[in-house]
Amino acid sequence: MTILHISAECYPVAKVGGLADVVGALPKYQNSPNTTSQVIMPFYDNKFTQENTFSSVYDAQLNLGDSVYDFQILVLKDKPLDFNVFFVQVPELLFKDYVYSFDDTDRFLAFQIAALDWLLTWGMYPDIIHCHDHHTGLIPFMLQESYKYEAFRKIPNVLTIHNAQYQGWFSHDKVGLIPPFNFEHVGLLDWGGQINPLAAAIKCAWRVTTVSPSYMEELKQAANGLESLLSAESAKCIGILNGIDCNVWNPETDTYIVENYSIKTVDQGATANKTYLCDTFNLDLDKPLFAFIGRLVDEKGSDLFPEVFQLALEKDNLSILLLGSGSKITENQLQDLKPNFVGTYNAFIGYDEKLSHIIYAGADFLLMPSRVEPCGLNQMYALRYGTIPIVRSIGGLKDTVTDINEAGGFGICHPNTTVSEITEAIDRAITLYKDQPTYKGIRTKIMAIDHSWDASAEEYINLYNTLKTSQQ
Ligand SMILES: Nc1ncnc2c1ncn2[C@@H]1O[C@H](COP(=O)(O)OP(=O)(O)O[C@H]2O[C@H](CO)[C@@H](O)[C@H](O)[C@H]2O)[C@@H](O)[C@H]1O
Predict the structure, then answer these.
(1) What distance in Å separates the CA atoms of residue 265 and residue 442, rounded to the nearest whole number?
(2) Does the CB atom of residue 22 touch ligand 1 within 6 A?
(3) CATH number, domain containing residue 153
């Protein structure tokens, strides 16, 4: 079976968040003697593309309405990745030093059209086309409706929703950018009077997956306007929990962290990493270290951090370190807090992959008070590194973290994203930390939890197989 994943992000080529981690790992775990799993993604102007060499395997032009753009399909000359990646180079639109910007309609439309135009010329079509998020959401529509791509009608396609908050909306004025199709079917593109790529994909994809079972259920109640569509299409929807790439996220071999460690040596290893963080960020080593890593957006509950941190730090019984960027208001509030709590609080506003690994290794607790969390990878990385997650029980967090007060529990859970519940959860964590034998017992227990991709990768393969069977 040949699978082609189509995505805007893929680790380590281009990463903004969890989408990259998934698309950078899933193909690896799907590849087997019987299965070839590959990725096609945009060619950005970034560190990875600057540091590697590429050759062109296809050179053509694409039409975006009346505009014509040159494009190429590039492949890596050397093969530093564990699976094939094809790159769509549209110099005028995609080759930027960012992945996302304010208006990406033309950019990602060009990407999707170039990918399909090239596929038409690819001798052997893939058995499965797997699209990720709204940036590739017009592909299921085009495969089904665009005259140009009629040859693909029988190829099963899957859409995975990593985040339904973002839908790629654009005005009907731009409908002419989509390769010609039977205009009587234009309603498939529409949701609420706009062209909505995510909605179009939910309508047209053969199957829709979300990245955790709970998120699938929650979307029927809250999906940024798509609730009724997801309920109506629920027969073809399924939640498959993400895994984590245990080769990349392994405290025994991780080259980013200060000292490697295993379950047996976590005491010493985690302390070495915590010491590094405390030295670097001027934090108190003797206090429990609470961390947050992620995008500073309302979905993650990060707008509450300035108040939560203020209240928690006033008690002077913990240290807090935050790594993230996003809302300028929150960034400024988090920066403003620094002078008030020198020695127990610090924030690194920005993106730093290496630092994120050291924080998973060195922090004692990881905060994730998300309002929406389709799956969440951070809590699974934290578990693997022996850092206890404090989560709001929602989406994938609900599916992966059990509260210490429940049978077999190992995390700290709170039902709502409010200042008082997060603060109370922090207090519970501090009480747990004071009981070092129990704390250490939980730490070794969580490191042994298996969230590797194996089971989920197989679930996807089973899903593809059912589609291939239904196609015959
Ligand atoms: N400032 C920073 N510096 C360094 N690293 C940073 C960083 N900010 C974030 N990261 C890293 O980005 C990844 C974030 O993963 P999440 O699953 O939390 O993300 P996200 O909300 O982007 O993804 C969406 O897709 C994923 C994948 O399906 C779902 O798990 C999730 O719920 C959904 O919202 C982690 O690897 C984290 O360490």
Answers:
(1) 14
(2) yes
(3) 3.40.50.2000
